[in-house]
Design brief:
alpha/beta; eight-stranded parallel beta barrel; five-stranded antiparallel beta sheet
Length: 588
């Protein structure tokens, strides 16, 4: 890796820093005897380098810039005392892996589970997650997706305020403990993805502007401030920094894939967009010998990053979520306004064709949104009822189990999500109808925390103070309720659905094409079907609280029905409220 501290074959440590705005840089080494300053050698292109036998694995260090500013290594592999502390030299080869024979299964069959390491268990550590892997494997999950781990200020944060993209968050454990979690997951048959943030740095602990202002663009702006410079002067080094970051997680940590956060805020007018370049590097690198999952979030609903040409496997499909959320809750504020007019029809289109908005005008955005997606396979879209954004971007972070008290409605929505061909995603605790909220929380210094709270309170009135320990504590899952009442019923229901998915849907997913949809007299009932290899998978649903007309006949074999007590539910003229039936039948 051309950045940071690297152990050499001869036992020395090579330090490298890109600091084009600095006149001189020194390595500050810390040990029991105090601080030792070692001058670095200036190199062309704004680089500084030093190879020394004064450091070793475990050595703590900072970079002293122009004799004034001591800063952590922006490519630090670990900052044991937090982002304001010293970086540590790490030997990436010291961990003994036991997953040589592991290969993630093909992407189209993935069932994802998003979790926050700090809030998933009482321990809030990598080891705490490892202790729950059996639960996830038994549930029917095939891949866990960790919210961002890049080091952030303090000990609690969603992870999207990270400032050291190569350093796993120290409050969760050591690099070797993270590797042990991934190694254990692979032995349990679970792939592991990491959410990475390449659109901005957090507001506290980022010192790049002092010695490498070329990391940021004066031409592009994001909701978090100046954009990262992927297409201006000096951008070659910036692009390399993030390409190597992606490869680093896939190679050194054996992650099976990445989820690229908010790429609509990754501004790049280069001939090859940085997202495409990262995907190509991943496919040409670790992807040569094992499956690599690459997913992304993109509010633009653009298709150019998906499929063989773009090399990314799938996009999080907000459209299907918003449609489901509106018909379950009746909410129409903010971006939900675009889905309030006819959510059942929009949901049917999203299930069949991927995006709901494929160039139509978004009233919320004030212009056209999206591109045609019907040519893409179902596996190009990740569907979900809940995730960190859709739960957390509310004032109090309420889950659907708080917003929707009708158990039948939630079961019907889960049946649509988990048996549709598109890879489904569950948010931690969703499988047992967890009630814990997931509000936005952070651990910024006091003045910054007060400013961001004031801003967030304007956007989401009634938001709790994000830096209060109690705001984070309320998000931690309570594992004691799994065997109790509605929680036990929800868990059994999700296990049943995922077993049906494993037995009936997964073997057919690779053959299924984009679907088609029909409706019953503009009502709440609709049908969606997908064809492939001489078979048709069909969904017939009434996602409403009143009976509805059957949208079309379906003589196939029923593989799941929310109302199995009806001897022939689809031969009747009316569908029961909140009813979902899945069938397999020969294709015409």
């Amino acid at each position: 890796m051309p950045f940071g501290a690297e152990l050499t074959a001869g036992g020395q440590v090579r330090f490298r820093l890109w600091a084009p705005a600095a006149r001189r840089v020194e390595v500050a080494l810390y040990d029991a005897n105090g601080t030792r300053l070692l001058p670095m050698h200036p190199l062309p292109g704004g680089w500084f380098a030093l190879e020394t036998d004064a450091a070793r694995a475990g050595s703590l260090y900072r970079f002293l810039v122009d004799g004034e500013h001591e800063v952590a290594d922006p490519a630090s592999r670990f900052n044991p005392e937090g982002v304001h502390g010293a970086s540590a030299v790490v030997d990436p080869r010291s961990f003994a892996w036991n997953d040589e024979d592991w290969r993630a299964p093909p992407w189209p069959g993935a069932v994802l589970y998003e979790l926050h390491v700090g809030a998933f268990t009482p321990e809030g550590t990598y080891g705490g997650v490892a202790a729950r892997l059996e639960h996830l494997a038994r549930l029917g999950i095939t891949a866990i997706e960790l919210m961002p781990l890049n080091a952030f200020p303090g000990t609690r944060d969603w992870g999207y305020d990270g400032v050291l993209p190569f350093a796993p968050q120290a409050s969760y454990g050591t690099p070797d403990e993270l590797k042990a979690l991934i190694d254990s997951a692979h032995r349990s048959g679970l792939a592991v993805l990491l959410d990475v943030v390449y659109n901005h740095f957090g507001p506290e602990g980022n010192y790049l502007h002092r010695y490498a202002p070329q990391f940021f663009s004066a031409r592009h702006v994001t909701p978090w401030g100046p954009a990262i410079n992927f297409d201006g002067p000096g951008s070659d080094a910036v692009r390399d920094f993030f390409i190597h970051n992606a490869l680093y997680w896939l190679e050194e940590y054996h992650f099976d894939g990445l989820r690229l956060d908010a790429i609509h805020a990754v501004h790049d007018t280069s001939a090859t967009h940085i997202v495409t370049e990262i995907a190509r590097a991943a496919r040409a690198g670790p992807g040569r010998t094992r499956p690599i999952y690459l997913t992304l979030e993109n509010l633009d609903n653009a298709v150019r990053f998906l499929g063989a040409a773009g090399s990314c496997d799938a996009q999080w499909n907000d459209d299907t979520h918003h449609s489901l959320h509106v018909l379950l809750t009746g909410e129409s504020q903010s971006y939900y306004a675009d889905y309030a007019r006819d959510p059942h029809a929009l949901l049917a289109r999203g299930l069949a064709e991927g995006f709901v908005y494929q160039g139509e005008v978004s009233r919320y955005l004030g212009g056209p949104r999206g591109e045609s997606s019907a040519h893409l396979p179902p596996s190009a879209f990740v569907n979900f009822l809940q995730n960190h954004d859709q739960v957390g971007n509310r004032a109090r972070g309420e889950r659907l189990t708080t917003l929707v008290r009708d158990e039948a409605a939630l079961e019907a929505a889960a049946a649509v999500l988990l048996l549709a061909p598109a890879p489904p995603l569950l948010f931690m605790g969703e499988e047992w109808a967890a009630l814990e909220p997931f509000p936005w929380f952070c651990d910024f210094e006091a003045e910054l925390a007060a400013r961001v709270h004031a801003h967030r309170s304007r956007e989401y009135p009634g938001s709790p103070y994000p830096a209060a320990p109690a705001t984070f504590a309320c998000a931690r899952l309570d594992w004691r309720v799994l065997e109790q009442g509605a929680h036990a019923r929800a868990l059994a229901f999700h296990r049943r659905l995922l077993e049906i998915r494993r037995a009936e849907i997964a073997p057919r997913i690779l053959e299924l094409h984009a679907g088609r949809f029909t409706r019953a007299n503009a009502g709440r009932a609709f049908a969606v079907s997908w064809e492939g290899a001489g078979e048709r998978l069909r969904l017939i649903a009434n996602l409403g609280a009143e009976a509805a007309a059957v949208p079309e006949s379906a003589p196939g074999r029923v593989i799941f029905a929310t109302h199995p007590e009806l001897p022939a539910p689809l031969s009747r003229e009316q569908l029961a409220p909140w009813s979902v039936t899945w069938l397999l039948e020969p294709a015409p």
